[in-house]
Structures are given as structure tokens and as C-alpha cells.
Specification:
The complex is a heterodimer of chains A (632) and B (308).
Chain A: H1 2-30, H2 32-56, H3 64-98, H4 103-107, H5 110-115, H6 121-142, H7 144-152, H8 158-185, H9 189-226, H10 231-242, H11 245-257, H12 263-266, H13 268-301, H14 365-372, H15 379-402, H16 409-429, H17 436-440, H18 444-448, H19 454-468, H20 470-486, H21 492-518, H22 522-537, H23 539-547, H24 553-561, H25 563-573, H26 577-582, E1 589-591, E2 594-596, H27 598-625
Antiparallel strand pairs in A: 1-2
Helix pairs in contact in A: 1-6, 2-3, 2-6, 2-23, 3-6, 3-8, 3-11, 6-8, 6-13, 8-9, 8-11, 8-13, 9-10, 9-15, 11-13, 14-19, 16-20, 16-21, 16-25, 19-21, 21-22, 21-25, 21-27
Chain B: E1 2-11, E2 14-24, E3 29-33, H1 40-47, E4 55-60, E5 63-64, H2 69-75, E6 76-79, H3 91-101, H4 106-119, H5 135-147, E7 153-157, H6 165-180, E8 184-188, H7 192-198, E9 201-206, E10 209-215, H8 216-223, E11 227-234, H9 237-245, E12 250-255, E13 260-264, H10 273-280, E14 284-292, H11 295-302
Parallel strand pairs in B: 3-8, 3-9, 6-7, 7-8
Antiparallel strand pairs in B: 1-2, 1-4, 4-5, 9-10, 11-13, 11-14, 12-13
The chains are: A mainly alpha (632), B alpha/beta (308).
Chain lengths: 632, 308
């Protein structure tokens, strides 16, 4: 009986996931990178836990009972660290792993082959998602020994671990489904990754912020006047909390530190409800994904391998060579071609897209192409790409303005820091695609067989990167220009931020071009540059607190050189009604070693810019060394 | 025009090319033949300055490809065995991009592009997006790109692969025309009959080693057989066989169903000997078809089917 049930379940699971699941598992088990990933995941997690542990157990003394109590508290903190690490790392990995799920099938032309089999779309989608989730489960499983080690010291709340695992897995499902959705829409994996990051940022950060502002603006006055906020606001707020895994895990973690403080939302009912909602969201995302994949399958079956947009079908290559074609003007000699004895087919009318403006090339061809080629040809993508961020940003300005926060220097510091982070994200991703993209489209060898020098190509590519990244910096400069004109930001902030942006841009362009020259495909190049940026600017701040090096010389030096810290300090000191009114001579900058004048801040920024530029130049030089390696 | 001396290339421990010696004369069409993985593409990539040899040297137009890469690139037009197209450019823009990259003066570019577009019959597609062209059209575009800077040497890696018969014939005619224009052409292909029709010289490579290089006549000579003739006579076949067997220029006569297969010796020389002999003996010759050794036969006999 039991065997029969198991067999039925197994057959049902096999039918749901289809052959894709098995194929994905087989392929992933043969890929060395998966084993390397597991190794590094465990190493980074261990380092993280040891760092936290070391910083917490540093202080000794007290009675035996106190020490036992303290060990239990430390155990809880370490468990919290592990759960949060897994929560963030696994979501990022889910996005990266599934960013190529469909686009790779399109590029390798296997989707067209799949279209000729009875495999259903949902089997493709589920097979891909579940196989990657299994990889993530393995990563979760290999960290279990660490939890066991911590348990020796007591105080491991297993209900918290269970909640963390469930929240992480459902968040990964949503992130993976969204990533797969974009991978069916876009050919390049980094575009899918960027879109996922954008969606995550909007859903998990911007939306709660906007709702928070609305809550502050509407609900609190309503509470004051009518005795309670509107019901719709409470529902919206609850919905946002329940659909935000960061918020839910934060609430569950707070229950770890102070149990019983919020009995309803800290209990299992809350996070279970959240997991159910996230599962429903992932089902919705998978359904949407399935629809997009079905279209991609149909396109592939019709021979279009472009994946992202319809390509006009060309007229068949039936026309023969002309009987009397002119000789090449450059050849010098007059040549008469021999007529080809083939029947001439009737002329085929050109498609509507055959016409259009032809742009002439002036100056360096590589530079011309980098500067003139449109960022996207799709009008819909252009419209969405411009209007959506501007609407969201505009809404935040409106709400902040209504709350009277535009005159506050901290408001500008937050805006500037966020915009610098957005610009840095663009600068991290796009340079890494400059050369690898050419390799992927197989144009790189053709470019290398021209007499153009490698330095010329590199400089043209760097110029192209700057051009492509302008949308990333647009919000920053628009904010600075508008509020400088209004008189809420001092012009010196533009000079300082110009230095900061220049240094970061040169550094990230150099490193991006280096990785782009090293790798054959854009995705590993982008991931490498993202990893470098994370290693430089995300991981150290996360570890600095637990390691306790923030206050030392090294820590101060690091904080002083951190672009986001610099952006915050520069803008908080040179913006707001009071600061602008004080004038440049009286502005004080909270630098890492204490308060400084505008000259001190300028000196620091110049130094940081020079260091970044030098490092960027070194990366570029190394990129040149890899230009003619691994061309194919 | 193209000379390689003990050209060797290793990928790790794998020998892709071993001591390759080639001599291709100016104005020749040189057919490069070999099984998959024999080293043809590696040789061409070295000559196109995309790979550096592990050992040995290669010169094009007297310039060392490893030491004077930039000078070599000016005189070489390389068409790889894949299609590299910028998906955001139109046909004219794509060609102008490469014209500018090869340093063709801006004032001359339009005329040059018009010329190559006409030569490759792509005039009607000049305003189309490159990535919307069919495979055959993209192949033509690649050929147009290769010609854009009027190179002395063309290195074409399987230019006709994946094309329909009409497009293949057109490419063949175009290459003949380019030969008449004085270009030196090195071409690799798996369609041996096509190479046979247009090549002056062929090189057969296997397992990274050149196992033969020379003209088609030299291949026949090396194989020890010049030609075969199939003969059909109206009348006594046995007598005809007897008469032909007695000739010193004939190596063997084989009786087939309704005709004779006559194998001539290497130095048979006189082409009219068989017909004259039969007619003189009073036999009416209904059919006389010379059958030369095909490149396919030579390829099969010379190579062992070894691949990496």
C-alpha cells in the first residue's frame, strides 16, 4: 500500500517536473562550478560566523551563571547571523542561477528542439526552478553542521531556524521565478539580474518607504482627529509587511531577542501566513513566466533565436550575382565579371523595415558605434524604462515635500547616497559587458583582425561605457542641479560628487573591462565585477562591526575611502537650508577622523579619486593583456 | 604570398598543428582540405593574427604574422567559419564600420561600399538590419566585409557552409572573379568537388600534419594513376577488349555489363589513342567517357580518418 502511494507520488512528481528536472540535475552534477560554489559558500559562511562569534565572546568575566546565560545569548545571535546570511546569499544565488534558465536554451537553440517534443511549458518552468531550488537546498543543508556546532553552546531556537528556512526558501522561489521570467524576456543574463534587482529594490524597499510616508502623512493625522487610521491603510500596511520577507524575517528575529514582545506577529501563524502568500506569489510569477516561455518556445520553433524581440524575416537569398558587376573601386584594375548561367528568379519585395535612415560614420568606428548605437530599439522598453523610475522617484519627492522634508539635509544625503548606489550598480554591470558582449556575438575576432590598435579599442570601449551608464547617474545629477538651483544644495557638493563619481567610474570601468576581456560570456564577467564591488564595499562594512575594527586606523581609512560614506558626508554637510545659508567657509564635514573644513573634504576626495583612478588604470592595463587571449 | 615554416600550435598538450610548411603563390586559389579537427581553422586563425603559433613562423606578403600583426591585417581579409554580426547596425553601416576600421578614407568609403555591395548583390539590402538577414545573405555580407579594404590575400574558412546550391555556385563564381582580380585566396571547405573546380593547388592536412600539398595533377601522379576511360562500342566487345589490352599505354581493361573500363598508365600521353585504335579496327565507338581521379578519392586514399 505504502509502496503504491510512494510510486504514485513519484510518478506525479515526475510528470509535473518533466524530463527537464532530471536533465538539469544531471548537468549540474557534472559542473565543477557547483562544487566550487558550495565550497566557497561554506568558507564565507564560516568566516562570517567565526567573525561574529569572536567579537561576541571577546569579553570574559562574570559569574558562571552569567557566562552560561551569555553563551546562550551568543548562540542566538550567531544563529540569527547564519539565518540572515543564508536568507540574503541564497536569494542572490537564486537570481543568478535562474537568470540564464530560458535565455541559454534560446541561445543554444535547444528551446526549438523542446518545442518539437510533448514537453509542456509548465514542465520546463517547474523543472528549471525546482532543480535550482534543490541546489539551494543543498547549500542550506551543508550549513547544518555549523548550526549543530553552535548548539553545543546552547540556546538554539529551532522554531526560529525553521521559520528562517521557510522564509528563505519561499523568498528564493519568488526571486527565482521573477529571474526566470526576465530570462525569457531578455537575451542577456545580466539584464535579467539587473531587472530582478530593480524589482526587489522597488518591492522590498521603495514600496514600504512610500507606504510608510503615506502612513505617516495620512494615518497619523487621521488617528489624531478621528481616533484611528483608515482601515484600508491598515490592510495595505499589513499586506506590505506580509509580502516583504525582509520585514517578516526581521519581525521573527526580533522575537528571538525579545520573545513575547509582539505575540501575534512573532508567532508561527504570522510567518506561516507570509510563506503561504509568497508561495502564491511565486505561483503567479511562474504562471506569468510560463506564458512568456510559451511565446519564446513558439518563436524558437519558428526559427527566431533572438529571444527578446521579433526579427523581420529577410527575403530569401535567391537572387543570383549580377551578370556584369562593377569591379572594386579600390582594386585599380578594370574587371569584367563572367555571367553566371543561372535562371533569374523574380525580385522579392523588401520588408517594410528594409528602409530607414543610414547613419554615416565619422572618426573612430568603435567610438562611433559605442556612442551612436541606441540603448534599446524597443519603444515600449524605452517608455517603461524612463517613465516607471521617474514616476516612483517623483512620488517620493511629492511625499517628502508634503511632509516638509525637502529642506532637511539628511533627506538630500539619503537621496544622493541612493543615487550614487544606483550609478555604481550601472557602472559595475555595463563595463563588464563591453568586450564579453562582442565575444558572445562573435564580432570580437573580426575587430581584432582590423589594424585598429588594442589601446584604441579599449579607450573607445571605455567611452562607450560612460555613454551607456548615463541613465544610472542621471537621477543624481538631476537632483543636484535642481536643488542647487532652488538653493537647497550648495554648488560645492556638485564638485565633490563629481570627483567621487569620476574615481568610482574609472575604477569600475577598468575592472569591468578587465573581467570582460577575461571571460567569454557577459554573465560571468558581470558577476565577477559585482563580486569585486561587493567584496570592496558591502562585505567589509558588514564584518567591521562584529570584528571591531571600525574604530582603528584601518577601519577609519576604509570608512574614509568608502564612496557611499563619502557621498553621504559630502551631501549632508553641503545641503539643507541651514548649511547653504552658512556658506562654504563655515561648512563642517564629519570625516572619519573628526570634523573638517571644505578643504579637508576636497583633499580627501582628491586622494580617493586618484587611488580609484590608479586602480582602474591598472585593471585596464591588465585588460589589454587579455585582449587577444581566449578570443574564441 | 603565404609561407609557413614549421608552423606548430599546441593547445595545452594537444598538438593542433605540427611543423606545417606551406607555400602559396600570388594569385593562386589554395584549397585547404582535411577532416574535422585536422588543424585547418587553427592554421587560418594564425595567419589572420588571431592566434600565436607555439613554434615556427608564418609570413604573408613578406611580413611575419606574429611580429608584424598590424601590417599583416592590412593585406589580409579573413572570413571565419562563423558569422559575427553587430545586431544593432544596418548593412551599409556595418560595412562602413569595417571600412573605417581598415582605414579606408571617408571620401572613398561610399564608392567602395557600393562596389562590394554590387559585387555581392546586396545593394537591395543596404538599409536592412544586419541581424535580420538570412544566413545566405549574412554569408555574402561577410564576403563583402572581407573585400572592403581590397586585401591582397583572402583567407576564407568554409565560406560556403550551410548555403543552398545556388548560393554556393554564386560564391564559387565570385571567388573565380576575385582570382581574376589578382587576389590570393586560401579557402577551406568540406565540399571537395567545389574546391576541385576552382583551386590551383590543394593542401591536405590530417592530425595537424600536412600530408600533401600540390596541384591536382600532382595528386594523380602521387596516386600512380592518371585516368580511367569508359568505352562502349557497337559490335564485338570482346575484340575491343583484346585490342585495347594489347596497347602498351593501357594498364588494365575491365569488362563491365555493356562497356569497358580502361585504366591508362601514368605516361599514356596520347588522348586519342583508344578511339583511333577502335575505329581503325572497324569498331564503331558509341561512347568514350574519360574519368579522372576525383579529389574525394584522393582525400579518402590519402587520409586515414584521424581526428582530434
Amino acid at each position: 500500500m505504502a509502496v503504491g502511494v510512494l510510486d504514485s507520488v513519484s510518478r506525479l512528481a515526475g510528470w509535473v517536473t518533466g524530463p527537464i528536472f532530471g536533465k538539469e540535475l544531471r548537468v549540474s552534477s557534472r559542473r565543477r562550478r557547483n562544487y566550487v560554489l558550495r565550497f566557497f559558500y561554506l568558507v564565507v559562511l564560516s568566516v562570517f560566523v567565526v567573525a561574529v562569534w569572536g567579537s561576541l565572546v571577546g569579553s570574559r568575566g562574570g559569574s558562571g551563571g552569567y557566562r552560561v546565560y551569555r553563551m546562550a545569548e551568543i548562540g542566538k545571535t550567531v544563529i540569527g547571523t547564519i539565518v540572515w546570511f543564508q536568507f540574503i546569499a541564497l536569494q542572490m544565488l537564486a537570481v543568478v542561477m535562474l537568470s540564464t534558465a530560458i535565455s541559454d536554451e534560446v541561445e543554444q537553440r535547444t528551446l526549438a528542439v523542446l518545442a518539437t517534443t510533448p514537453v509542456r511549458t509548465f514542465q520546463i518552468v517547474l523543472g528549471k526552478l525546482l532543480s535550482k531550488l534543490l541546489q539551494l537546498l543543498i547549500l542550506l543543508a551543508i550549513s547544518l553542521p555549523l548550526l549543530a556546532v553552535v548548539r553545543v553552546f546552547g540556546g538554539v531556537p529551532w522554531n526560529f531556524v525553521l521559520a528562517g528556512v521557510c522564509i528563505t526558501l519561499t523568498a528564493c522561489m519568488v526571486a527565482g521565478a521573477v529571474s526566470m521570467f526576465f530570462s525569457a524576456l531578455f537575451r542577456r543574463a545580466y539584464v535579467s539580474i539587473l531587472c530582478c534587482m530593480g524589482v526587489g529594490f522597488v518591492l522590498y524597499a521603495v514600496l514600504p518607504m512610500i507606504l510608510g510616508m503615506i502612513f505617516a502623512l495620512v494615518a497619523i493625522p487621521a488617528m489624531m482627529s478621528r481616533g484611528g487610521p483608515g482601515a484600508w491603510l491598515q490592510i495595505t500596511w499589513a499586506a506590505v509587511s506580509l509580502t516583504n520577507p525582509f520585514a517578516v524575517l526581521g519581525i521573527v528575529t526580533s522575537g528571538l531577542a525579545s520573545p513575547g514582545a509582539m505575540p501575534f506577529i512573532q508567532g508561527p501563524g504570522f510567518w506561516t501566513l507570509h510563506c503561504g502568500i509568497m508561495l502564491a506569489i511565486s505561483v503567479l510569477a511562474l504562471w506569468l513566466c510560463g506564458r512568456v516561455v510559451r511565446k519564446a518556445v513558439l518563436r524558437a520553433a519558428m526559427g527566431d533565436t533572438e529571444g527578446s524581440r521579433p526579427v523581420p524575416q529577410a527575403a530569401p537569398s535567391a537572387a543570383p550575382l549580377p551578370a556584369q558587376a562593377a569591379a572594386l573601386p579600390a582594386a585599380g584594375a578594370e574587371v569584367v565579371l563572367t555571367p553566371v548561367p543561372l535562371p533569374v528568379p523574380p525580385p522579392v519585395p523588401l520588408p517594410a523595415s528594409a528602409g530607414g535612415e543610414i547613419r554615416r560614420i565619422a572618426g573612430s568606428p568603435v567610438l562611433w558605434r559605442e556612442l551612436r548605437v541606441p540603448l534599446t530599439r524597443s519603444i515600449v522598453k524605452k517608455a517603461v524604462g524612463i517613465s516607471l523610475p521617474l514616476s516612483i522617484v517623483g512620488l517620493t519627492y511629492l511625499l517628502v515635500g508634503l511632509a516638509g522634508g525637502l529642506g532637511d539635509r539628511h533627506t538630500h544625503a539619503v537621496y544622493v547616497s541612493v543615487y550614487v548606489a544606483i550609478g555604481m550598480t550601472f557602472m559595475t554591470v555595463l563595463p563588464a559587458t563591453a568586450i564579453a558582449g562582442e565575444k558572445q556575438s562573435r564580432c570580437w575576432p573580426l575587430l581584432l583582425t582590423t589594424p585598429l590598435s588594442d589601446v584604441h579599442i579599449l579607450l573607445a570601449k571605455a567611452a562607450g561605457v560612460c555613454r551607456r551608464c548615463w541613465p544610472g547617474w542621471f537621477l543624481l545629477w538631476a537632483h543636484l542641479v535642481v536643488f542647487t538651483c532652488i538653493g537647497l544644495i550648495h554648488p560645492v557638493a556638485m564638485v565633490h560628487l563629481g570627483m567621487l563619481v569620476t574615481g568610482v567610474a574609472v575604477f569600475l570601468t577598468g575592472s569591468g573591462l578587465y573581467f570582460s576581456a577575461r571571460f567569454k560570456r557577459t554573465t560571468p564577467a558581470v558577476i565577477a565585477n559585482l563580486a569585486l564591488a561587493a567584496l570592496l564595499w558591502v562585505v567589509p562594512p558588514t564584518l567591521m562591526g562584529p570584528l571591531g575594527i571600525g574604530g582603528g586606523e584601518l577601519g577609519r581609512l576604509y570608512v574614509a575611502a568608502h564612496p557611499l560614506v563619502q557621498a553621504f558626508v559630502v551631501s549632508v554637510s553641503a545641503s539643507g537650508v541651514q548649511n547653504v545659508a552658512k556658506g562654504m567657509a563655515h561648512m563642517r564635514y564629519e570625516l572619519a577622523w573628526g570634523s573638517g573644513s571644505v578643504v579637508d573634504a576636497t583633499g580627501l576626495l582628491l586622494l580617493a579619486m586618484a587611488a580609484h583612478c590608479l586602480a582602474g588604470a591598472a585593471f585596464s592595463w591588465r585588460a589589454l593583456g587579455h585582449f587577444r587571449r581566449r578570443v574564441f | 604570398m603565404i609561407v609557413t615554416d614549421k608552423l606548430t600550435k599546441y593547445y595545452g598538450s594537444l598538438a593542433a598543428l605540427v611543423d606545417l610548411d606551406l607555400h602559396i603563390h600570388p594569385g593562386d586559389i589554395f584549397g585547404f582540405i582535411g577532416p574535422n579537427g585536422a588543424g585547418k581553422t587553427t592554421t587560418m586563425r594564425i595567419l589572420a593574427t588571431l592566434l600565436e603559433p607555439t613554434r615556427g613562423s608564418a609570413e604573408i606578403d613578406g611580413k611575419d604574422v606574429a611580429k608584424r600583426g598590424k601590417d599583416v591585417r592590412r593585406v589580409v581579409g579573413y572570413m571565419p567559419d562563423f558569422m559575427g554580426v553587430y545586431d544593432d547596425l544596418k548593412v551599409f553601416e556595418y560595412l562602413e564600420f569595417f571600412a573605417a576600421a581598415f582605414g579606408v578614407a571617408r571620401s572613398r568609403r561610399k564608392a567602395v561600399i557600393d562596389g562590394v555591395l554590387e559585387l555581392t548583390d546586396l545593394e537591395a539590402k543596404r538599409a536592412m538590419q544586419v541581424d535580420s538577414l538570412s544566413r545566405g545573405m549574412q554569408q555574402r555580407l561577410q564576403l563583402a566585409r572581407v573585400l572592403i579594404h581590397d586585401p591582397k590575400v583572402l583567407i576564407l574558412d568554409e565560406p560556403a557552409s550551410g548555403l543552398d546550391p545556388r548560393a554556393r555556385i554564386e560564391i564559387r563564381e565570385l571567388l573565380r572573379e576575385l582570382k581574376r582580380m589578382g587576389k590570393t585566396i586560401m579557402i577551406s571547405s568540406h565540399i571537395l568537388s567545389e574546391l576541385e573546380e576552382m583551386c590551383d593547388h590543394v593542401g591536405i592536412i590530417e592530425h595537424g600534419k600536412l600530408i600533401f600539398s600540390g596541384t591536382l595533377a600532382e595528386i594523380r601522379q602521387r596516386m600512380g594513376v592518371t585516368s580511367k576511360v569508359r568505352v562502349r562500342v557497337c559490335g564485338d566487345m570482346a575484340r575491343a577488349a583484346e585490342l585495347l589490352s594489347a596497347l602498351p599505354q593501357v594498364q588494365a581493361v575491365q569488362r563491365l555489363e555493356d562497356r569497358l573500363a580502361v585504366t591508362l598508365a601514368e605516361d599514356a600521353g596520347d588522348d586519342g589513342l583508344i578511339a583511333r585504335t577502335l575505329v581503325t579496327a572497324g569498331l564503331d565507338v558509341a561512347e568514350l567517357v574519360p574519368e579522372q581521379v576525383k579529389l574525394d578519392d584522393a582525400f579518402l586514399q590519402l587520409t586515414k580518418g584521424l581526428v582530434h
